[in-house]
Amino acid sequence: MERKKVLISERIAEEGVEILKRELDVDYRDGISREELLSIIDRYDALIVRSVTRVDEELIQRGKRLKIVGRAGNGVDNIDVDVCTRYGVIVANTPDSNTISAAEQTIALMLAGARKTAWANNYLKSGVWDRKPFRGIELYGKTVGIVGLGRIGSMVATRLKAFNMRVIAYDPYIADERFERFGAEKKETLEELMREADIITVHTPRNEETMHMIDEKMLSLAKDGVGIVNCARGGIIKETAIIAGLESGKIAFAGLDVFEKEPITDSPLFKFNNVVVTPHLGADTYEAQKRVGEDIALQVIKALRGEIVPNVVNLPTMLKEELDYLKPYITLAEKMGSIYYQLERTPISRIDVTYSGPITKNETEILTIALLKGLLSPVMEEKVNYVNARLLAQDRGIKIYEHREEQTNKRYKNLINVKIFTNRCALDITGTISRAKNPILVEINGYETETDLEGLVLIVENEDRPRVIGPFATILGDHGINIASMKVARRNKGEKAVMLINVDNEVSEELMDILAKSDGIMSRPKLLRF
Ligand SMILES: NC(=O)c1ccc[n+]([C@@H]2O[C@H](COP(=O)([O-])OP(=O)(O)OC[C@H]3O[C@@H](n4cnc5c(N)ncnc54)[C@H](O)[C@@H]3O)[C@@H](O)[C@H]2O)c1
Ligand SMILES: O=C(O)[C@H](O)COP(=O)(O)O
C-alpha cells in the first residue's frame, strides 16, 4: 500500500521527524516559500507547521488530500481553524508540550527587564565598565499582574510566588477555585489589575477580544514605572502604546518575545535600552521542542490511521482519561448513526439524542458528532469526519437536539437513544456497551433485542407464529450463510416480530428475494453493515 505523505513546513525536532518516518513519507521543507507550498500542497495527506506558515482558505482549498494540519506548538492564530473545519481538515496542536519553556522565558524576560541585563551586557561588551545606569529593581515584595491564568499564566504564578511576589490575576473565564489553587488574588476587571500591578505579564490567546486589550487608555491606569512582559502573542499589549509609555516614562521596562508583525528585524521598540527583546523564543528549548515534535508526530500518525487524535482544536477538548472512557461509546454512536440510511432514504429533519446514565457526567458532544459522522458518511460525496460532521448535518437542514438523563433503567448502566425524524419518527434506536466493551443495540422501534453491532446483521420483520423462523434460517443455511447469533423481538404476542441476525457471510440480492418470499416474512430483509 502506498505510504501517506506529510509535509513539514517549519523546523521541528529530529525526534518527531524520526517517528513520522516510521509510517509516512516525510518531506521536511523548513522555510518553504508560500508559492511553492501552494503549488505542492495537493500531494500531501498532512501538513505540520509552527507559527510562521499561514494556513488559510487558499492553501486548504488546494490541499485536496489534506486530513490534518498539525501545529507543532500551542497558538493556532496562523491557522484559519473555521476554514479547516468547513473542509473537514483536523487541526491538532500540542498545548501542554511547551508551556514550561514559555513560563520560564516569561520570567527570564521579567528578570532581564528588572535588572537591565541585556543593556548592561551590550555596554560591557562594547568595552565600557560602568555600573551607574544599570541599577535595577527586585521582584521580591512586588505585585505581578497576570492577565490570563491558563496553562502558562498559572505556571508563571506559581514560580513567581517563590520570589515572594504578590500575585494578582485577571481571567474572566475561569472558576474562582483556579485562582485559589495558584495562589493568585482574583481581580474582577483588567482596570483593577492595571492599577495595582508593579509588573504586568499577559498570557491570553490573541483574538478579537484580546488584540490591543492593553492600549494607551489601559496603560494610563498603570503605576508610573510599571514593567511589562509579553511572551504570549504580539499585539495583546498594543505596540504603539508601549512605545508611548516608554517615551513618557510610564513604562520602566519591557520584555517582549512576540510582536504584532513577525518576523521583524527593525522596530521603534528596538531603540529603547530598557526593552529586552527575543525573536519568539518562548518555546525554543531542547526539551520543549522534543516534546512538541514527538507529540505532533504521534497525533498526525493517529489522524492518518483514522484513530482518535487527543488535541484536536476543532473538536471539544477532553482529558485523556475521559477520552479513554468514552472511546467505546464513540464507536457505538457512530455505528448507531450508520443504521438510518441503510434502512431508509427519506431526508431527515430532526434528530433527538438522549444520553442516560453516568456517561452524562462526561463531554457527550463528541458522541453526537460521532453519531452524525456515522449517519452522513455513507451518503455524502464530501469526506465526513469528526471535525465537520455537525456542520454538514446543519447544512442539510437537520436540527439536532441533545438530552441528558442521569438515571437509566437498571438493566443497562449507560444508554444512548436516537430518534430520527422525517415528517414522523422514522427510526428509534437505543444502544449500549456490553460488559465485554462491545457496542450492542438494545432496542429498535420499540422491539427489545441485544444485537452486536459488528460485521453483518440481517434485519427482517416476520409474523409472530410457529414455522416462520425455522424455514427462514434453513434457507440461509441452504445457501451457505452461517448464523453467528440471532435475536427475535416482539411487542405483543401473535403480532409482528423483528429478527436481527448476525451472519458470517454476505447475502446476495437474489437470496434476499428468496428470503422475502419465505412463509410469514413481512418485509424484504435488509443487510446492515458495521
Ligand atoms: N512565546 C511563545 O513562544 C509561546 C509559547 C507557548 C504559548 N504561547 C502563547 O501563550 C498564550 C497562553 O498560552 P496558554 O497555553 O497558557 O493558553 P491557555 O488557553 O491555557 O490560557 C489562556 C487563558 O487566557 C484566558 N483568557 C482568554 N481571554 C481572556 C481575556 N479577554 N482576558 C483575560 N483572560 C483571558 C483564558 O480564560 C485562559 O485561562 C497563548 O497566546 C499562546 O499562543 C507563546
Ligand atoms: O504558540 C506557541 O506554541 C509558541 O508561540 C511557539 O511558537 P513556535 O512554534 O513558532 O516557536
TrEMBL record:
<dbReference type="InterPro" id="IPR045865">
    <property type="entry name" value="ACT-like_dom_sf"/>
</dbReference>
<dbReference type="Pfam" id="PF00389">
    <property type="entry name" value="2-Hacid_dh"/>
</dbReference>
<dbReference type="InterPro" id="IPR002912">
    <property type="entry name" value="ACT_dom"/>
</dbReference>
<comment type="pathway">
    <text>Amino-acid biosynthesis; L-serine biosynthesis; L-serine from 3-phospho-D-glycerate: step 1/3.</text>
</comment>
<dbReference type="InterPro" id="IPR050857">
    <property type="entry name" value="D-2-hydroxyacid_DH"/>
</dbReference>
<dbReference type="InterPro" id="IPR045626">
    <property type="entry name" value="PGDH_ASB_dom"/>
</dbReference>
<dbReference type="InterPro" id="IPR029752">
    <property type="entry name" value="D-isomer_DH_CS1"/>
</dbReference>
<comment type="similarity">
    <text>Belongs to the D-isomer specific 2-hydroxyacid dehydrogenase family.</text>
</comment>
<dbReference type="InterPro" id="IPR006140">
    <property type="entry name" value="D-isomer_DH_NAD-bd"/>
</dbReference>
<dbReference type="Pfam" id="PF19304">
    <property type="entry name" value="PGDH_inter"/>
</dbReference>
<comment type="function">
    <text>Catalyzes the reversible oxidation of 3-phospho-D-glycerate to 3-phosphonooxypyruvate, the first step of the phosphorylated L-serine biosynthesis pathway. Also catalyzes the reversible oxidation of 2-hydroxyglutarate to 2-oxoglutarate.</text>
</comment>
<feature type="domain" description="ACT">
    <location>
        <begin position="457"/>
        <end position="530"/>
    </location>
</feature>
<dbReference type="GO" id="GO:0004617">
    <property type="term" value="F:phosphoglycerate dehydrogenase activity"/>
</dbReference>
<dbReference type="InterPro" id="IPR036291">
    <property type="entry name" value="NAD(P)-bd_dom_sf"/>
</dbReference>
<keyword id="KW-0520">NAD</keyword>
<dbReference type="GO" id="GO:0051287">
    <property type="term" value="F:NAD binding"/>
</dbReference>
<dbReference type="InterPro" id="IPR006139">
    <property type="entry name" value="D-isomer_2_OHA_DH_cat_dom"/>
</dbReference>
<dbReference type="InterPro" id="IPR029009">
    <property type="entry name" value="ASB_dom_sf"/>
</dbReference>
<dbReference type="InterPro" id="IPR006236">
    <property type="entry name" value="PGDH"/>
</dbReference>
<dbReference type="Pfam" id="PF02826">
    <property type="entry name" value="2-Hacid_dh_C"/>
</dbReference>
<keyword id="KW-0718">Serine biosynthesis</keyword>
<keyword id="KW-0028">Amino-acid biosynthesis</keyword>
<keyword id="KW-0560">Oxidoreductase</keyword>
<dbReference type="Pfam" id="PF01842">
    <property type="entry name" value="ACT"/>
</dbReference>
<protein>
    <recommendedName>
        <fullName>D-3-phosphoglycerate dehydrogenase</fullName>
        <ecNumber>1.1.1.95</ecNumber>
    </recommendedName>
</protein>
<dbReference type="GO" id="GO:0006564">
    <property type="term" value="P:L-serine biosynthetic process"/>
</dbReference>
